[in-house]
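Structure in, sequence out. Go:
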């Protein structure tokens, strides 16, 4: 075998590490939607050469988290109203499939733990804490669906939605209560073995989150990242 046909494992590992770090920074809001990315600055911050940064940016552009603009450079994607609407249309359809699959073999113990977590939350809970548990809950359902392709697709969709969702929650202090009730209704329906109700509650919950986000984007077209948390 030609020794030059294989890429050194250390380089491959470094590229993946840079990719994961940039992805986490984008999804968690460290790199804000619409911000321009500098290969030089990112390489300095990560203490790596520009090559793995460039490759990570290219890879993230394929997921939609980064937008590459000719002669302007790379930017963290700033989802439009149409983008968000399209993403939610797909998310709603797939999450209904996910919850239907979960109902076939419900993870009772884990669902009860999530119920305790959401029951302990209130309107005073920080947005960061809620969004962390919200993402963990939905990702858990995707995993329990038993469909690896659905799991991967929904994770990508939610990553894109979450680029702007934290900002939308900041503009409506009452919306968290609605979302918490939605989670509890989904969990209770599954625990009671009522798959039809679980599907209906999931559809209603996703519709609530969609309505909240689209209303925010209509009020803040363009750059909404200057919205400050109260």
């Amino acid at each position: 075998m030609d020794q030059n046909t294989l890429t050194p494992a250390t380089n491959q590992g470094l590229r993946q590490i840079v990719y994961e770090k940039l992805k986490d920074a984008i999804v968690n809001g460290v790199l804000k939607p619409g911000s321009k990315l500098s290969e030089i600055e990112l390489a300095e911050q990560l203490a790596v050469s520009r090559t793995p940064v460039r490759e990570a940016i290219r890879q993230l552009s394929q997921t939609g988290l980064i937008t590459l603009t000719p002669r302007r450079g790379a930017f963290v994607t700033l989802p439009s109203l149409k983008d968000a609407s399209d993403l939610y249309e797909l998310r709603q359809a797939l999450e209904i499939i996910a919850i239907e699959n979960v109902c076939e073999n419900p993870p009772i113990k884990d669902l009860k733990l999530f119920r305790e977590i959401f029951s302990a939350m209130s309107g005073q809970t920080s947005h960061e804490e809620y969004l962390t548990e919200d993402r963990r809950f939905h990702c858990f359902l995707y995993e329990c669906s038993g469909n690896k392709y659905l799991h991967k697709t929904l994770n990508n969709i939610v990553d894109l939605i979450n680029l702007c969702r934290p900002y939308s929650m900041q503009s409506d202090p009452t919306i968290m209560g609605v979302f918490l009730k939605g989670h509890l209704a989904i969990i209770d329906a599954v625990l009671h073995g009522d798959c039809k109700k679980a599907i209906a509650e999931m559809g209603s919950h996703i519709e609530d989150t969609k309505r909240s986000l689209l209303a925010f984007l209509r009020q803040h077209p363009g750059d909404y990242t200057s919205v400050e948390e109260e």
